[in-house]
Structures
1.
Amino acid sequence: MSYTYQWLDVPWGDGDMGSWADRSPLHEAASQGRLLALRTLLAQGYHANIVTIDHVTPLHEACLSGHVACARALISAGANVNAATIDGVTPLFNCCSSGSVGGVELLLQSGAYTHASHTHFPSALHEACKRGSSQCVEALLSHGVDPDYMVSHLGSPLYMSCLHQHAACSRILLHKGASANVGRDRDSPLHAAVRQDNADQVSVLLEYGADINLRDDNDQRPVDLAPPGGKTKQLLHAFEVSPRTLRQVCRIHIRRLIGRSRLTELHCLPLPPLLTQYLEHT
């Protein structure tokens, strides 16, 4: 395979990132997971931060393909873990696209930023929720990522997981303190789940305090959007007749009072194990 390169003012190999009109052999090796070839190219003088015209680095390629060993070799050679393409895509985002939890952990341990520099840039957490990569969601949240991190045109991570019907991701977000009622503009996560007629998703949201009376931009409640005769319509009607128990209401209220940042410290409180499990939803 032949490659055509275009040089800019900065010469390749001096420690700065150049700009390339096409993918280099290093990009190809990283994308295909050819670790030996990648190490050979690095030893021959290819710079770990070599970029395409769209600012895609070999580390982007390794992460998108889920090749953790190649990513580790590139990072050891000085690859920038926070490099962004012209669209704001980072290696961390690409790991979440591929569902590579090993890659996510490697990047976070190597200093990857958990949030993009601009709120309209792609978010790794949103991508993990979109793809249903629950392990990536767990890893990001365990490193302090805000479960309610907003991207203006996408809404909250919880809204994204509901939109794409990933109940496991939703449960992890809610367990870590995400608001059950923060979606995109006036559209709540419950609105999104109901449109998909996803009863499992709706049940999780109701368990963590979703408000069935919120109205969207068309002044409709979730029950108004539920397909006639569908599971979610039946579930919401049953909830209206028999709302949350006092036990559920108390748990929701206590968790809110404790605050999201302290939910992970529940086990440190001098409480009976049964009460700790009750507050943790376990």
2.
Amino acid sequence: MVQGRGWEGAVLRLLRARDFEFTVTRAEDVTPHYRRLRLTDGGMLAATGVHPTMWVRLWFDNAGRPHQRAYTLVDPDPAAGTFGLEFALHEGCASDWARSAKPGDTIEATVQGTGFDRPDPDPSHLFVIGDPASLPAINSLLGALGSVGSQVPATIWFESGTEGLPFRTDPALHEVRHLSRGQLADRVRAQLPDLLKATPDPYVWITCDTTTTRALSSYVRRELGVRRERVHALGYWRAT
């Protein structure tokens, strides 16, 4: 159990965030660097409901200090009170916890700040920029925009190795452009402008590292002229 949550926990309490405890029921290594857990929700889904791309804040112990990271729910089941979480493994206390997690382990969590506004009108084409850390959110987004009457085509720029990762893409609708680390921003700047010219109602979803997300979000809005309400941008991790 994490002892105290510092100033972040205090701020979340003021914002009336809700706390829960999750229990691991299953663990699976999808690839050597990507791990999936199944957990019970401690009553969360019944209390909060569920929506596409929904995420929770998990609390980890970092050498005696609290550390929180946000993760997207995978296949939440409100009736059963269960969901999955997927971890792109690297260095750090969150990945360390995920590597060793086994059935019966518990973790504290907070729900605050999550939401999903379906684009209106639905996009004629979806442009997605991400990496393994945001893959669960990307999968959830593709499912949400393909679940009500029409199927939305998508172009996805995805940084880092993709072999074995659990993409939920339809080859007939979704083109994934695989990129090596460090290529993401340059490739998007080179390719996105021409694609936007042929798209009457685009929607741009940017969920990669914080620095790249900020740079591309500014570029898409200011230089390419995509309206703010047609751009979603959220940094999923910070490069060190």
